[in-house]
């Protein structure tokens, strides 16, 4: 069984880190104030505000910030400011044994995907494909906060992950499977193939989402994942949104799912509102979930926190 980090409560301390691309100081400061208004204390990594071109700081510096948060006993949750690019460069500098010994909630999505899955694979830690600092603002829908805090601040179990009203999950291949859930952003997962941090989907339920990629690129991603055995190894497949993903050659995102994934015969649902879209379901990476693509339900079988 994967390690469940301690739950988050109002008054706890959140450790803030910039692990990929830089984020402007004004955005950081306004989002931090939002968190403080919610009742949380904030500790800053040394390079939260850093700017070094494509990435905020060197890989070693960004990794050190993350490790310092895991070592800090006062920090209950680690929150990425944003994704962007470059997160995978910190992975060789992480001490997965120390992380395993100091479990904490860590949340993010987009380029943070590769970190979330690596922490599960190498530290056996449940992580959260969910909100980043940029999402803590008044414009964020209540659904996103409800999803986040129900997953990180309660022991409710089992917990159904449901889309907002009037946005239905679509079952494309019927079935019923239970296993640990892994995955996230397609770009991040494909970029890690052929490295020591390649995602392990064997006996897992794989979910995927993407943003700002034409369907020619999605075709490449799905083909690469397939040729790497990721769909053959998995128990079932959950497809999230592809936000701002224009059709190419008259072929849509949905067309690719139907032509490339449905024929695999694995239990398959699509249209989960998670990732880069307006609505963001919270997915606990490494937790056991039940995917019932006959009834179109997704259920977290155990509390992802303790």
TrEMBL record:
Positions of the LD-carboxypeptidase C-terminal domain: 178-291
Limits of the LD-carboxypeptidase N-terminal domain: 14-129
Alphabetized GO MF terms: carboxypeptidase activity; serine-type peptidase activity
Pfam families according to UniProt: Peptidase_S66, Peptidase_S66C
Domain of life of the organism encoding this protein: Bacteria
CDD domains with a match to the protein in the record: Peptidase_S66
Protein name: LD-carboxypeptidase
Family statement drawn from the similarity comment of this UniProt entry: Belongs to the peptidase S66 family.
GO annotation, biological process: proteolysis
Gene3D superfamilies registered for this protein in UniProt: Class I glutamine amidotransferase-like (3.40.50.10740), LD-carboxypeptidase A C-terminal domain-like (3.50.30.60)
Keyword Protease included in the entry's annotation: yes
Residue positions of the active site: 110, 209, 276
């Amino acid at each position: 069984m994967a390690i469940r980090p301690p739950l988050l409560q109002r008054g706890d301390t959140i450790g803030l880190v910039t692990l990929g691309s830089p984020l402007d100081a004004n955005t950081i400061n306004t989002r931090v104030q939002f968190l403080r208004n919610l009742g949380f204390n904030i500790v800053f990594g040394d390079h939260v505000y850093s700017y070094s071109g494509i990435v905020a700081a060197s890989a070693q510096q960004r990794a050190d910030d993350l490790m310092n948060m895991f070592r800090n006993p006062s920090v209950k949750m680690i929150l990425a400011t944003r994704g962007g690019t470059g997160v995978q460069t910190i992975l060789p500098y992480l001490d997965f044994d120390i992380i395993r010994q100091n479990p904490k909630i860590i949340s993010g999505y987009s380029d943070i995907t590769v970190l979330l899955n690596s922490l599960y694979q190498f530290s056996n830690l449940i992580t959260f494909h969910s909100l980043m600092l940029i999402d803590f603002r008044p414009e964020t829908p209540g659904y996103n906060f409800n999803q986040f805090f129900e997953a990180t601040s309660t022991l409710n179990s089992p917990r159904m992950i449901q889309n907002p009203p009037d946005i239905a999950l679509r079952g494309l291949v019927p079935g019923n499977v239970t296993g640990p859930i892994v995955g996230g952003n397609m770009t991040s997962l494909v970029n890690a193939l052929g490295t020591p941090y390649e995602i392990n989907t064997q006996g897992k339920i794989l979910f995927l989402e993407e943003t700002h990629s034409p369907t020619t690129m999605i075709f490449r991603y799905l083909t690469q994942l397939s040729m790497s055995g990721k769909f053959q190894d998995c128990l079932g497949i959950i497809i999230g949104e592809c936000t701002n993903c224009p059709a190419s050659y008259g072929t849509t995102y949905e067309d690719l799912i139907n032509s490339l994934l449905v024929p695999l015969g694995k239990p398959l649902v699509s249209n989960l509102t998670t990732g880069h879209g307006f609505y963001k379901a919270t997915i606990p990476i490494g937790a056991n979930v039940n995917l019932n693509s006959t009834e179109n339900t997704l259920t977290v079988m155990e509390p992802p926190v303790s």
